[in-house]
Specification:
eight-stranded mixed sheet, two-stranded parallel sheet, globular
Amino acid sequence: MKIDGVFSGGGIKGFALIGAYEEIERRGLSFVRVAGTSAGAIVAAFIAAGYTSREIFQLVDELDMRKLLDNRKTFLPFSLAKWLLAYWKLGLYKGNEFEKWIKEKLEAKGVRTFSDLPPQTLRVIASDLSNGQMVVIPDDLGKYGIDPGSFSIAKAIRMSCSIPYFFEPVKIRSITGVNIVVDGGVLSNFPIWLFDQEDTVKVRPVLGIKLSHSEFQHRKHRIANAVQLFAALFETMKDAHDARYISKKHVRNIIFIPTEGVLSTEFQLTEEKKQALFQYGRKCAEKFFKSWSY
């Protein structure tokens, strides 16, 4: 059966998304259109390029994640320089190596720009902080005077994955000047609204894969100090927009994968933890399909 799919953000926890994708493949489902934010954008792009779940897992598994952490050279020890980098460059790591890796893997499938894919096959979310607005790529690129079809998919994925203060933001020039673009999860971590809206007739089933509990089973934030306050503040901001679009009707079409205990930026995961996340995502999907009907 042909379906559309939406993958949520979650950083390194995206291994669980790949596991869920394996179960989706096993059920004989194939995606026509995909969308995602951050880690979900990576998985969505690889699916759109024609990679299988096992191929995606192998690509990510054999990668030394530490190579993606390309900090700028400085005469100061990184432990001291990181505060200057965060202040002046707006991020600890450049993000160039990450973009290069995505570019190489997509080009291996003959995919470079959005014109290499059928229209609407892939859409990713980023956050334009300069203008205070969400950006759907490639749809919104025309507003910046950029030809959507000629835009690099690897660049779009990098934009969607630029975790604030961790990776340097992407700067894009437009008729209004330079715009600072960061992780799409700041404004929409799970863009299921792209395909599943109340007033729109769906062309085909829409399946969501989300790295969290259901909005209707959300655990209460524990706030006893400033760090916990910041974490709760950021999570509330991140999920507030999407929560408005997720009704109980949508929930029945979403595979929820709660992934507590793993940090989004935990780039030194052990092989055991990678496999555990992959298998956990697959098991959550397997449980979901036991009661899913469309």
